[in-house]
Design the sequence.
């Protein structure tokens, strides 16, 4: 399914296109991979927001946004991402099919603005606009503080932070508020330009577009800013591995807050990640434990014990970390933890029914089949391949899942280590 | 034997099939041969607003506890022989359901076994099974769902604003009810609501994906003919009168958050029984709101520059069959300044009229965004169904948008800004200043 991608240029920048009549919107996605490091995380996290403050030709945020929206509601974003130990700049452009809205040249006009956003940001004294920096610095600091507003993701972030302490993966996606003050507009722009010029840029284009048209438009538009045929130097990204636990102690943290619902989050290490031959077995393990409504967690924590509205597990495939999360009554922490630990033990002991195996297999296969529908799945698979050195095609994953049996799951279970228990607990007596 | 009515849009490269079965069930199919997944929604025109009605069981007028439509949605997933999720799981489908103010939807998506999954969907929604025990068990689960929402600033500020507009009217009551109200629900209540609102003639089935309409017809026909339904009858629903003015102009509460969140807007005085007229009004409202405060507007960026809000600031117009309102807002360290700043800008624009360029940009954007919606099976299913139940066909959207002119949009803006219809909902930090 994912091999419908065609490379645009023989050598030089990595640009691929998937021509398909399936979509009425054309999507362009560009990614730059960076190592996730404490010293650079904050400034990198701030940069994409600055790009949206304007370009040389559209020197104000509203001028840039207006120009893009005038193209039949085309949209453009720049954001910072975190994938295991990798930090990314991700640029996204979506343009309605020009044949439908009846305006030829729409794609090229949109791509031009997209390229300007990436390569030609608004400058002031060879730096980013100082006004833009002031605004974004304040907003960024608030964004970091605002993580607490969504209790579910706050608890997940806390659990991750405790579990991955000392690893790049433990660095927060948005960086650190205290590192924002030292940033200056000039150095930031220099650093940004350095990254864009020297690090590989991966571009994916999906939509009802003709290959030759895209090739000439991309060549023309991007060629104004970068050398398309310049072979980029291989750059050092950390190879993602699944780290095992160092101490046998479980880390435990209980935080009290004035909330109506407690959030119980568990972090586990599996020792298996995307790079491993055993990755499909890990997918099965997660599916049986908590990936579906037929999974042990949903069935036992929610349906049998009525302890929670949600109780699931989620896999971080790059790192081989597994998270369990449930929203519970703060008074019932012990009950919930007991039931969750029982489920882990059940799998370890091989108490897995044929239905559980079968439902999980068809459920996973369905997810992978379905992954062909969103336009950017192929790009995500390539990102994972870059970060782990292991390329799985959807077909390979499906074939492997089809062959799975109980022993595969039990083998994974034997390796799983509970690392961290984090509980966001409501205060006694509840203020409201 | 096919009796589909086809509606084709050459420009959009889409064809939609429509039929009504003998028992009154309306079915719509949007074939998407290039997609892998089939996404199907089965929706009843019954939501949290519908608390008072003539019971199909007793023929008497009844008032049921708040949150019952949502409770019923949860309980439909239990059958005598077990959990419906397992039946879907067997055929590799992902299933879910959700309840709104005026509808309840059951859905699945799958890349294989579409016939089987469709059968499971139709069968479980058309076969209620409630016991005292399973009703009781669900109360703990839903109580946790309610508590989860109580901690969510978006949800709290949204319901605060609705309370401001509508007071005690069910339009402002939490869809899930309260822990107290769901505590009163019995299996008899559930059966009563089920019998009243789940007749096929009150329901819509929408299917999008790589399916053949002829085959689907046979599947549905065979499934429905094998079941006996009561004679269809009009459903009599009763609602309290809508308040004339916004009930509370300002409401506040507190949560453990890092920054205040404020929502504000106007309850709409516009009301029309003709869905086509409502559709056009909705489009006009959405156009000025986006033109004036969307990401491409000057004002949106001014608000950020002035330190009044962040990029999450948003605007929305919500319209049901019975009421409508605008919502503006986002995070703000100076929430009341934000409200005043936007109110002033709205008043000024109402006086001067919207600028032609802004209007055209918003119009083109609305057209483009509608086109993009069609790429999302899930999105199109939800929007199509909810609008259909309100008498609106979204495939008329392009035409409506192309016809609408600036005068109409300016009129909608001017008529909307009534001071006594205005409300503000503010969520402050626990330790914030008073």
Sequence:
């Amino acid at each position: 399914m994912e091999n419908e991608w065609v490379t645009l240029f023989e050598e030089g920048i990595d640009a691929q296109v998937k021509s398909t009549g399936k979509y009425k919107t054309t999507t362009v996605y560009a990614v730059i991979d960076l190592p996730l490091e404490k010293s650079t995380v904050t400034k990198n996290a701030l940069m994409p927001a600055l790009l949206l403050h304007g370009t040389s030709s559209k020197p104000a945020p509203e001028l840039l946004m207006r120009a893009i929206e005038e193209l039949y509601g085309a949209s453009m974003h720049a954001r910072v991402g975190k994938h295991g130990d990798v930090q990314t700049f991700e640029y996204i452009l979506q343009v309605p099919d020009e044949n439908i809205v009846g305006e030829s040249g729409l794609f090229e006009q949109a791509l031009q603005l997209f390229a300007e956003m990436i390569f030609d940001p608004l400058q002031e004294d060879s730096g980013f606009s100082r006004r833009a920096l002031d605004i974004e610095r304040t907003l960024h600091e608030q964004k970091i503080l605002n993580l607490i507003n969504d209790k579910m993701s706050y608890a997940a972030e806390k659990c991750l932070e405790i579990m991955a302490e000392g690893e790049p993966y433990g660095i927060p996606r948005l960086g650190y508020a205290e590192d924002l003050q030292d940033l200056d507009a000039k150095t930031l722009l220099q650093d940004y330009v350095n990254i864009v010029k020297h690090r590989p840029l991966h571009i994916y284009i999906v939509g009802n577009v003709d290959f030759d048209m895209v090739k000439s438009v991309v060549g023309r538009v991007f060629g104004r800013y970068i050398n398309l045929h310049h072979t980029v130097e291989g750059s050092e990204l950390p190879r993602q591995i699944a780290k095992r636990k160092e101490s046998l102690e479980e880390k435990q943290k209980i935080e009290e807050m004035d909330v109506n619902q407690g959030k119980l989050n568990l972090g586990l290490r599996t020792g298996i990640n995307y790079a491993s031959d055993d990755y499909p077995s890990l997918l099965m393990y997660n599916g049986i434990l908590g990936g579906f409504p037929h999974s042990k967690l949903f069935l036992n924590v929610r349906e049998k014990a009525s302890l929670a509205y949600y109780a699931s597990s989620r896999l971080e495939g790059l790192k081989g970390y597994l998270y369990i999360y449930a929203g519970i009554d703060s008074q019932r922490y012990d009950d919930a933890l007991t039931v969750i630990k029982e489920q882990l033990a059940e799998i370890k002991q091989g108490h897995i029914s044929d239905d559980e195996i079968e439902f999980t297999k068809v459920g996973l296969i369905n997810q992978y089949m379905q992954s062909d529908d969103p336009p950017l799945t192929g790009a995500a698979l390539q990102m994972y391949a870059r970060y782990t050195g292991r390329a799985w095609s959807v077909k390979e994953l499906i074939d492997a899942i089809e062959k799975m049996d109980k022993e595969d799951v039990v083998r994974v279970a034997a390796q799983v280590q509970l690392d961290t228990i984090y509980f966001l607990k409501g205060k006694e007596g509840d203020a409201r | 034997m096919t009796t589909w009515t086809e509606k084709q849009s050459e420009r959009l490269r889409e064809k939609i099939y429509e039929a009504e079965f003998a028992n009154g069930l309306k079915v719509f199919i949007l074939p998407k041969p290039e997609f892998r997944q089939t996404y199907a929604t089965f929706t009843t025109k019954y939501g949290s607003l519908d608390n008072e009605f003539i019971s199909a069981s007793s023929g008497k007028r009844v008032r049921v506890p708040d949150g019952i439509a949502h409770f019923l949605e949860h309980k439909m997933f239990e059958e005598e022989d077990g959990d419906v999720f397992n039946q879907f799981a067997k055929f590799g489908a992902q299933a879910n359901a959700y309840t709104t103010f005026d509808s309840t939807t059951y859905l699945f998506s799958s890349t294989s076994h579409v016939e089987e999954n469709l059968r499971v969907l139709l069968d479980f929604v058309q076969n209620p099974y409630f016991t005292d025990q399973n009703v009781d068990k669900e109360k703990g689960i839903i109580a946790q769902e309610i508590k989860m929402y109580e901690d969510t600033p978006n949800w709290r500020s949204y319901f605060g604003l609705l309370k401001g507009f509508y007071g005690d009217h069910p339009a402002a009551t939490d869809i899930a009810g309260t822990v107290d109200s769901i505590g009163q629900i019995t299996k008899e209540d559930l059966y009563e609501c089920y019998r009243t609102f789940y007749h096929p003639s009150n329901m819509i089935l929408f299917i999008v994906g790589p399916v053949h309409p002829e085959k689907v017809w046979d599947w549905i026909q065979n499934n429905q003919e094998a079941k006996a339904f009561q004679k269809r009858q009009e459903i009599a629903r009763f609602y309290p009168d809508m308040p004339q003015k916004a009930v509370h102009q300002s409401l506040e509460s507190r949560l453990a958050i890092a920054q205040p969140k404020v929502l504000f807007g106007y309850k709409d005085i516009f009301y029309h029984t003709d869905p086509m007229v409502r559709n056009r009004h909705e489009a006009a409202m959405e156009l000025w709101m986006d033109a004036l405060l969307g990401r491409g507007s000057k004002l949106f960026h001014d608000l950020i520059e002035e330190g009044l809000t962040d990029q999450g600031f948003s605007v929305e117009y919500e319209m049901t069959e019975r009421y409508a309102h605008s919502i503006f807002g986002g995070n703000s360290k100076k929430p009341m300044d934000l409200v005043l700043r936007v109110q002033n800008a709205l008043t000024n624009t109402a006086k001067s009229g919207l600028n032609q360029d802004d209007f055209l940009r918003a119009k083109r954007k609305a057209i483009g965004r509608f086109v993009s919606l069609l790429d999302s099976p899930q999105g199109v299913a939800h929007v199509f169904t909810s609008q259909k139940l309100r008498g609106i066909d979204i495939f008329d959207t392009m035409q409506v948008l192309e016809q609408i002119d600036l005068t109409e949009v300016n009129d909608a803006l001017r008529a909307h800004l009534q001071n006594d219809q205005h409300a503000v909902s503010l969520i402050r930090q626990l330790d914030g200043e008073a």
